[in-house]
Design goal:
The protein is mainly α. It contains 14 helices and no strands. Helix 1 (3-33) runs parallel beside helix 3 and helix 2 packs antiparallel against helix 9 (125-153). It is globular, with a radius of gyration of 20 Å.
């Protein structure tokens, strides 16, 4: 492990640390509530490592859902990761042996950090991305262990506790919005995401369906691909040209 990269990555992951300890504990409590102890919580967090998927897993375990249903629901829930991976192809190029783990550890929050991650001067980029991923994973494992352990000692009402994950992602999204700076183009991807999601919710509801994730992601992907040249074009700075 590159200690320099790890030390540089830690400050960037502090928001995820605070969030993952909370929502990891929530998962541990939920899993304990359906009859599975701390060892199972750690095992799921190490092997599966999918926050919303693990939350869903608690419900599926409680209802003894058949495997085909588990597979289909998991696919639909995590379908968005296909688009996550496509957007990070360039960033993960050249990461070598770290690449399989970076792909495995690509949660919503880690994706949010990696998309805006800029390695400090003198820090290996691949090691920096790897450090962010492994730190976030360790936070989730610790949180789930603590939650499941507490659940064995105290009885909790876990209703509504799964909203903690949504709240964490909103906080990270707001932080990225602020870090993007001023200008419409800097915020255009976020605005496209918000607009397409809102439109998908309205349209699917009118059609009598709640499955808005795939249509929303497809629309976002198409718009971003169509606007790729404009989004990636260098910004014009009047200040640089005014002095010549």
């Amino acid at each position: 492990m590159d200690r320099k990269a790890l030390a540089a990555a830690f400050p960037a992951t502090v928001p995820v640390l605070m969030g993952y300890l909370s929502i990891g504990m929530a998962f541990g409590l939920m899993l304990q509530a359906v009859g599975y102890g701390p060892l199972w919580a750690v095992f799921m967090s190490v092997i599966i490592y999918a926050g919303s998927g693990q939350y869903l897993g608690c419900t599926l375990l409680a209802t003894a859902a058949p495997l085909p249903q588990v597979a289909m629901l998991t696919l639909l829930l995590n379908f968005r990761h296909i688009f996550y991976g496509l957007s990070l192809l360039d960033k993960f190029r050249g990461t070598g042996w770290r690449k399989p783990y970076l792909i495995f550890a690509l949660t919503d929050e880690t994706y949010a950090l990696l998309t805006g991650a800029v390695p400090p001067a003198g820090v290996n980029a691949a090691n920096y991305y790897f450090s962010i991923a492994i730190l976030d994973h360790s936070y989730w494992i610790l949180g789930s262990l603590v939650g499941a352990t507490i659940g064995t000692l105290i009885t909790f009402n876990t209703e509504g506790i799964d909203f903690a994950m949504t709240a964490l992602f909103v906080v990270i999204a707001v932080d990225q919005w602020k870090a993007a700076g001023k200008g419409v183009r800097r915020h255009l991807p976020a605005m496209i995401g918000i607009g397409c999601t809102a439109a998908a919710v309205v349209v699917t509801r009118l059609l009598g369906s709640d499955n808005m994730i795939i249509p929303a992601l497809a629309a976002i992907c198409l718009l971003l691909l169509g606007l790729r040249r404009q989004l990636e074009a260098p910004e014009e700075t009047g200040e640089e040209g005014s002095g010549t």
